[in-house]
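Service request form, structural biology core

Requester: graduate student, group of Dr. S.
Request type: structure prediction, single chain
Budget code: on file
Notes: please return the result as structure tokens.

Sequence provided:
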Amino acid sequence: MNVVLATLNAKYIHTSLALRCLKAYCEKDFPIEIAEYTIKDPVMNIVSDLYAKQPQVIGFSVYIWNIEETIKVIRVLRKIMPDVRIVMGGPEVSYDTGEWLDKLPEVDFIIHGEGEETLHHLLQEIQGEGKYHLVFGAAYRKVKNGAQETVVNPPRPKLNLAELPSPHRFPEDRESLANRVVYFETSRGCPFSCSFCLSSIEVGVRYFDIERTKADLLYLIEAGARTIKFVDRTFNIKRDYALEMFKFLIENHGGCVFQFEITADIMRPEVLDYLAEHAPPGIFRFEIGVQSTNDVTNLAVERRQNWTKLVRTVTKVKDSGKIDQHLDLIAGLPHEDYDTFRKTFNDVFALRPEELQLGFLKMLRGTGLRRDADKYGYVYADQAPYEILGNSLMPFSDLIRIKRVEDVLEKYWNAHRMDHTLLHLIDRVFGSAFDFFQRFGDYWERQGWERIGHQLEDLFSRLRAFLLSDEAPRGMELDVVLGLMKLDYFLGHNHKPRKVWWEFGMDKSELAGWMKRLADAPEEAGEEFSRLGLGEKELQKHAVVERLPFDLERYLQDGSVSREAETLLVVLYGTEGKRGGRAFTLRLPRGAAAAL
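Core staff response, request fulfilled:
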């Protein structure tokens, strides 16, 4: 029996751990082929590829992000392959399973819950006697008294994870390991009960054998994996386990990057101390779900969170300079209105995470919050991902405004295109991060820029347009902001930029004068610059310069704006084999010329 397991990933670089777990468990008795596509692939391309494989059974793994596109594929498949058995499984259909089966006559079976053992049993019955009532964890249709009815079998008992084969050893995966994200689980389940999250429904945490886990990780690293993302809901729930795994990865990382979801307020100080001392920079990345700093909100969604301890963890990790942190917020939770969400945003931004993810509440099937939707006046979309449209405290108009914050937050802060500029504007001009992103986002939307593409220089030009508009605060030192924008623009290039977004004021003779001065007296730009020993021709090739009307070096040292001196900003590219720009400064008396 030819079996194909398929899914539509969000992006090409993603891989499906679920399909590989199913294949590993079932392939001892059934030939299994994995077929991965993306939600951007044309439906007919996917259908044509699956049709060419001529399977007797096709299984689809579905989530909120791919269910609608998967349904389109299934409906076309059913028309051209009327005899193929179609199976669905995954989080999106593990709840309201009977409703899904009634809604999708093209689907023959749905698996709810953990799928390895259930799929294997189901394939045995498809190939054998068809005793589907014995397949716990499956739903199907049968005819009774001349009428068709939907049957949802009881759930299957939890699997013994020690008995599951590894999903990471398929030879056909080796070639693509370096170019795709590998998803990896060391445990299943979550110890917490947040009512907006599917993970809260499964009680307890089960672990895979740690020695097999280490062996699989070593295999992946040695086979060329570059990014491994752990899907454990709370990687650090057991201190000793987390510490042992961190030590193992530090000793064996091989240049691979590892991403974890952690709960920051339970991270033990000794673990933080160990990471600060021993973790190589850049190999670990932490995702931390903050969601809200509003105590009333957290109580309503049964979320236990100690804000003081969370701040301690995030601050200590940031101060170590070893680990990037991605902090998550959810807009639209119970008891959170526009003003309290503004406070939540500012509380979290004050921690200066490398990435701040602003998401909007999804009313996921099976969650307690979806069942209690009426209690809070929720209105939400009927189709996946079931994003809220408003509630009794946060109307649609407020959500629309916050989406503008999300838009410019992604383009500017999370992309780290102008950190010096943004922090200056947030701390000294707009009063808070939320107010800056909101006012800029409102302006962005009124200009219609969300409908057109953006190159790097466009982002700078549009920020300048906003700062020059009547909607920006009065009294800011605009020349300082523009100077910081120029610094950020130069530092944002890997190679010497071909153009700038401002009118460059130096003529050729003045530029040549500065290049001569830098070549003849390099010590004026600092010891490191002098050590490079660059001549005029090399500087012409590798350097950009710009004059700023304030003392940039002093600003970068202590944040003060001094106009007692000006600055010649010098940024070098491609020297000593290094990518990106390196900034140097030459402090100038006000009005100084280029000549020595």
